[in-house]
Amino acid sequence: MAYFALNNESVLEYVRSREALDSVIDRKGNLNADEIGDGNLNQVFIVREAENESGRAIIVKQALTYLKVAGESWPLTRERMRFETQALLKHNELAPGLAPEVYDHDEEMSVVVMEYLGEHEVMRKPLVERRRFPDFPEHISTFLARTLFFTSDMHLNGVEKKEMQKSFINPQLCEIQEDFVYTNPYMESEENKWNPLIDAEVQAIRSNSEIKLAIIEMKIAYMTHAEALIHSDLHTGSIMLNEEDTRVIDPEFSFFGPMAYDVAALLQNLVLNYLSHFAHTPDKKERADYQKYLLDMIRDIWCLFAEKFEALWVENNKGDLVPDAYWDYPGGEKAFAGFRRDYILKILQDVAGHGGIKFLRRMMGIVTVWDISSIEDNKKRAEIERMALRIGSRWLLERRDVTRIDDLIDIVIEEAPWR
Question: What is the three-state SS of the chain?
């Protein structure tokens, strides 16, 4: 079948043609479709059995030939859907139950068909509504620890790692991140946009050599540190959940990159939500209580991740990086423990670096976050955006001094105190 862009009508005929879907939906029955995609790269349809409200449903996701947020003038290859499918399958293998199940994949049509998460919602808006998800730190720390460790040199031998890495060379979407996160926001580029009330702060960052040199250092890490298979777009818009269950979605940016990037993207998004409540939650007591909840969540996610990652390492040190025989000498066990602590601390310091940059790019680049963009009062929004720029600058510039997650949390409280 030659590629064409699906719509609400043609997607039904497409589904009816896919025998692989027989076990998950009645292909020959009465179906309906709704296009629900609000992302920047793809279109997404819910296809439902229409006979009754309890009918089964699936998600059909198709790559377009251009970047939606930039328009048809920014063409893209459709191969990204292959990367997303591969990543979803790998995530289901390594962290079962924490990603949607894949039912079908059609490379020629750039389509993946997957589980419909009708009892879940995208995490971003419920956080603005001050909802709480008590099991989320446990779930997401497991996802991060397992997907990062089991695709790293600590678990895989050199051939296994490089063979897997070869199948995830994702140049176009890597270039988008390299440009839109690490380069374009800090210079003149036509797609950049920001609140005009923070223009002075934007121009100050663009002309700050210390910040720009630090950004380049972290960009080099993003481009060259192929430590593990990373999601590379893991924010609160890429997570669907309810109070009992969590699923990570949309891994089309996946490639082998720095482990810290995924952790940084998530924690930074949670801080942006913390900041947004200065506008979204007028009641001071209610606001301070929820902001404390968010900071406690950040702390829990990091501490659980670090604990689980090290435990996996101790139990599964099968890779070529530092095999057990390397430590087989008097004092070797202690040295190995010290190496693990230093390695995990370096991840945290890189979380500060990559996370700091992501604060900056969200305030002065092509794409902000709904938590902030939904604030209608430009003056209040500017106040919050200035906080984000200060926090981001400090996380980035002070990253080498970080020794614990509370160092990053303290910067948030110092620059945006409960009030």
Answer: CCCCCCCCCHHHHHHHCCHHHCCCCCCCCCEEEEECCCCCCEEEEEEEECCCCCCCEEEEEEECCEECCCEEEEECCCCHHHHHHHHHHHHHHHCCCCCCCEEEEECCCCEEEEECCCCCEECHHHHHCCCCCCCHHHHHHHHHHHHHHCCCCCCCCHHHHHHHHHCCCCHHHHHHHHHHHHCHHHCCCCCCCCCHHHHHHHHHHHCCHHHHHHHHHHHHHHHHCCCEEECCCCCCCCEEECCCCEEECCCCCCEEECHHHHHHHHHHHHHHHHHHHHHHCCCHHHHHHHHHHHHHHHHHHHHHHHHHHHHHHHHCCCCCCCCHHHHCCCCHHHHHHHHHHHHHHHHHHHHHHHHHHHHHHHHHCCCCCHHHHCCCCHHHHHHHHHHHHHHHHHHHHCHHHCCCHHHHHHHHHHHCCCC
Give all domains of the chain, ordered by start, each with its CATH number.
10-115 (3.30.200.20), 121-415 (3.90.1200.10)
Q: Which residue has the tokens 């779930």?
A: 139
The Cα–Cα gap between 194 and 177 comes to 18
State the virtual CA torsion across 282, 283, 284, 288 in degrees, nearest 10.
Answer: -90
Retrieve residue 232's tokens. Answer: 């590379």
**Distance in angstroms (rounded) separating the CA atoms of residues 365 and 290:** 28
pTM: 0.95
Give 125's pLDDT tier (boundaries 50, 70, 90): very high
pLDDT digits (tens, 9 = 90+) for 367-405: 899 999 999 999 999 999 999 999 999 999 999 999 999
Q: What is the pLDDT of residue 127?
A: 98
